[in-house]
Design a protein that fits this description.
This protein is of the alpha+beta class. Helices cover about 40% and strands about 25% of the residues.
Length: about 200
């Protein structure tokens, strides 16, 4: 059945998300507490937009590594180091809910298995899209890759800048933080670790 040009087609609306609605309520209270007027034109829809943004930025809580990897672990005879450099990273500091951002370098020595290249970047996002400490993020990522690939060793380096240090507090805009986690042969074999660091610096 075709609708005439003058006939109105009903709009199908998605069911309200109770989590988004609750977050929006709290964001509205925060904005009001800051002395703003929620009826002001520019702020009318801000609570719901902020709620949706926060839900997106913390979606890592609702993901599992096995679902992100989705079977992309492949058998291989390769035993040379695999390194993925300069993976963009965006996260939220759990102390002030302000962003930190930078790049992540991941390396591993396969032990009969390799992981799909894009899946490493997706795992970075999984752990970054939570309220985080950079130190914990680095360790969680390395441990996950070790467990999923059973690699001989894994190395992860994260370099990031923190707005909680740049916008407030000491206000040092040029500061950055580097964290690393070395597991297996990356931790116990100086030659393997040096190769990884050399490849990251290239």
């Amino acid at each position: 059945m075709r609708h005439s040009s003058t006939e109105k087609v009903p709009t199908v609306r998605a069911e309200p998300d109770p989590v988004i609605e609750e977050l929006a309520h709290h964001f509205g209270s925060i904005i009001t507490g800051l002395g703003e007027d929620l009826d002001r034109e520019g702020l009318v829809d801000t609570p719901i937009r902020a709620a949706e943004a926060m839900r997106f930025l913390t979606r890592g809580y609702r993901q599992e590594p096995k679902d992100v990897i989705n079977g992309a672990i492949f058998e291989t005879d390769a035993d040379e180091m695999v390194v993925v450099r300069d993976i963009e990273l965006y996260s939220l500091c759990e102390h002030h809910l302000l962003p930190f951002f930078g790049r992540c370098h991941v390396g591993y020595v396969p032990h009969g298995k390799v992981i799909g290249l894009s899946k490493i970047a997706r795992l970075v996002d999984l752990y970054a899209r939570r309220l985080q400490l950079q130190e914990r993020l680095t360790t969680e990522l390395a441990t996950c890759i070790q467990e999923q690939t059973e690699a001989y060793g894994v190395g992860v380096i994260v370099e990031a800048r923190h707005l909680c240090m740049m916008m407030r507090g000491v206000e040092k805009q040029n500061s950055s933080m580097t964290t690393s986690c070395m597991l297996g042969s990356f931790k116990h074999n100086g030659t393997v670790r040096a190769e990884f660091l050399d490849l990251v610096r290239q």
